[in-house]
Automatic annotation (TrEMBL):
Primary location recorded for the protein, binned into one broad class: cytoplasm
The protein, known as: Arginine biosynthesis bifunctional protein ArgJ
Family in the record: Belongs to the ArgJ family.
Catalysed reaction equations from the record: N(2)-acetyl-L-ornithine + L-glutamate = N-acetyl-L-glutamate + L-ornithine; L-glutamate + acetyl-CoA = N-acetyl-L-glutamate + CoA + H(+)
Keyword Cell division: no
PANTHER family in UniProt: ARGININE BIOSYNTHESIS BIFUNCTIONAL PROTEIN ARGJ, ARGININE BIOSYNTHESIS BIFUNCTIONAL PROTEIN ARGJ, MITOCHONDRIAL
Pathway(s) served: Amino-acid biosynthesis; L-arginine biosynthesis; N(2)-acetyl-L-ornithine from L-glutamate: step 1/4; Amino-acid biosynthesis; L-arginine biosynthesis; L-ornithine and N-acetyl-L-glutamate from L-glutamate and N(2)-acetyl-L-ornithine (cyclic): step 1/1
Source organism of this protein record: Desulforamulus ferrireducens
Molecular function in Gene Ontology: L-glutamate N-acetyltransferase activity; L-glutamate N-acetyltransferase activity, acting on acetyl-L-ornithine as donor
Annotated SUPFAM superfamilies: DmpA/ArgJ-like
UniProt function note: Catalyzes two activities which are involved in the cyclic version of arginine biosynthesis: the synthesis of N-acetylglutamate from glutamate and acetyl-CoA as the acetyl donor, and of ornithine by transacetylation between N(2)-acetylornithine and glutamate.
HAMAP family: ArgJ
UniProt record, GO biological process: L-arginine biosynthetic process; ornithine biosynthetic process
GO (cellular component) term, any one: cytoplasm
Length: 405
C-alpha cells in the first residue's frame, strides 16, 4: 500500500496544535541552545520506546512511568549537555523538578509533562539552570521555533535532524513530524538517540504504542555507528487528534496508511543520525535479500553496517569484500556461505561466496559516493532488510577521546 506522503517543512511542529522552542540554559559552553520545549495545545495520546540498556537515566525512568500510568502528555522538556544518568539519589528528583517547573509555567498537570536528557553521564544535573530557563522556553513557544528546538537537543551532532509528511487518512489531511538527535553511541535495540514524533491523527495510546514499536524495528533499530547503546535512548510519540479523522484502529487500511507515514518519518530521521555519525564522511546503506526470514536479513544487514573493519574500509575506499562476508558469518543469520553474492554499488565483488575479478577503480568510485550502497544476496529464501551505518574515521577517535573534557 502506498501512502502518497508529501514531504513538508516544519519538523516537530508541522502537525496542528504543536509548538516548540529552543533556548540557552547555560548547560553548554558559549551560550549555545541546550533546552528545548515541545507543547501540545490539547492532551495528546503518548507512546514511547526506550533503551534496552540495564543502566537507565532518571529522565527516561520518569517518562516511561508517566506514559505507562496515563497514556497522555501535553509537554516534553529536553536538555542537552547533561544526561542526568548515573547521578544517584538526586537524579529522579532533579528530573521531576524540571517537569514541575514546566507544569507550573504552562498551567498543566505535572504528570502530563515528559522529560528527556542527553549529554555527559555521571555529572549531577544543573537543575536550577534549567528551572531558571523554563519561563523563557515557555514564552518562546511557537510553530516557527521547531528549528531552534531541533538545535537545542544536539550534542556532538553536526546538523539538526527534522522531517515531516502529510497524507490523507479517511478523507482528512494528517500530518506527522519529528526531530531527533544522535551522532555517537549508536547501535540497535534503541540506538543512542533522542527522537520526538508528533501527529495530529486521532489514535489511542495503545494503538500508537503498537505502531511505534513496529516502526522502530525497521528504522531506529536498523542503524549503527559504533556499537554502543546508551542510557538515555528514547523515542516519544504524541498524537493530539486535531486532524479530526475517524479514530485509527488496528488491522485497518487507515492503520496501514498511518504506519507507512510514521515509518517514513522515523526512517528519514534514523538515516540522518547514521549519516551524522561522529567523524563520518559517508552514509553506508546495506540491503540484504534472499535470507531465510526477515529476522535473518536484519541480523545480516546490521552486522555488515556495524563491522568496524568494513566501516574503516569504506573510509579508505577499499573494496575489501571479505570483511562483508566475515560480518555476515558472525551475524547469527542462517545461510549457505557458498551461495552469497555481494555488490558494492553497481560492481559485483563476490559470487557464490568466492572471489570474482572486478574493476577495482570502479569499485573505488562506488565507495566514494554518499551513500555507499552494499547489496547482498544470500540466495537462501525470501527475507529482506536494510540497515544503515557510516564509515569509521580518524575523527571518531578524536571526538571521543575528549568528549567529557
Amino acid at each position: 500500500m502506498t501512502t502518497n506522503c508529501q514531504v513538508i517543512s516544519g519538523g516537530v511542529t508541522a502537525p496542528r496544535g504543536f509548538s516548540a522552542s529552543g533556548v540557552s540554559a547555560g548547560l553548554k559552553k558559549n551560550n549555545k541552545l541546550d533546552l528545548a520545549l515541545l507543547f501540545s495545545e490539547t492532551p495528546a495520546a503518548a507512546a514511547g520506546v526506550y533503551t534496552t540498556n540495564l543502566v537507565q537515566a532518571a529522565p527516561l525512568v520518569l517518562t516511561r512511568q508517566r506514559i505507562s500510568a496515563g497514556g497522555l502528555a501535553r509537554a516534553v522538556i529536553i536538555n542537552a549537555g547533561n544526561a542526568n544518568a548515573c547521578t544517584g539519589a538526586r537524579g529522579l528528583p532533579d528530573a521531576q523538578a524540571s517537569t514541575q517547573a514546566v507544569a507550573t509555567a504552562l498551567g498543566i498537570p505535572e504528570e502530563q509533562v515528559l522529560v528527556a536528557s542527553t549529554g555527559v553521564i555521571g555529572v549531577p544535573l544543573p537543575v536550577k539552570k534549567i528551572i531558571g530557563a523554563v519561563p523563557q522556553a515557555v514564552a518562546s513557544l511557537s510553530k516557527e521555533n521547531h528549528a531552534a528546538a531541533s538545535q537545542a537537543i544536539m550534542t556532538t551532532d553536526l546538523v539538526p535532524k527534522e522531517y515531516a509528511v502529510q497524507l490523507e487518512i479517511g478523507e482528512k489531511l494528517v500530518t506527522i513530524g519529528g526531530m531527533a538527535k544522535g551522532s555517537g553511541m549508536i547501535h540497535p535495540n534503541m540506538a543512542t538517540m533522542l527522537a520526538f514524533v508528533t501527529t495530529d491523527a486521532v489514535i489511542s495510546h495503545g494503538v500508537l504504542q503498537q505502531a511505534l514499536k513496529q516502526v522502530v524495528d525497521s528504522s531506529f533499530n536498523m542503524i549503527t555507528v559504533d556499537g554502543d547503546t546508551s542510557t538515555n535512548d528514547m523515542l516519544i510519540a504524541l498524537a493530539n487528534g486535531q486532524a479530526g479523522n475517524q479514530e485509527i484502529l488496528p488491522a485497518t487500511a487507515e492503520y496501514q496508511l498511518f504506519y507507512q507515514g510514521l515509518l517514513e518519518v522515523c526512517t528519514a530521521l534514523a538515516k540522518m543520525i547514521a549519516r551524522d555519525g561522529e567523524g563520518a564522511t559517508r552514509l553506508i546503506e546495506v540491503t540484504v535479500k534472499g535470507a531465510p526470514s526477515r529476522q535473518d536479513a536484519q541480523r545480516a544487514a546490521r552486522s555488515v553496517a556495524g563491522s568496524n573493519l568494513f566501516k574503516a574500509a569504506v573510509f579508505g575506499k577499499d573494496a575489501n569484500w571479505g570483511r562483508i562476508l566475515c560480518a555476515l558469518g558472525y551475524s547469527g543469520a542462517s545461510f549457505d556461505p557458498t551461495k552469497v553474492d555481494i555488490f558494492i554499488g553497481e560492481v559485483q565483488v563476490a559470487k557464490d561466496g568466492g572471489a570474482l575479478e572486478f574493476d577495482e577503480d570502479k569499485a573505488q568510485v562506488m565507495l566514494s559516493q554518499d551513500p555507499v550502497h552494499v547489496f547482498v544476496n544470500l540466495k537462501s529464501g525470501d527475507g529482506s532488510a536494510t540497515a544503515w551505518g557510516c564509515d569509521l574515521t580518524y575523527d571518531y577517535v578524536r571526538i571521543n577521546g575528549s568528549y567529557r573534557t
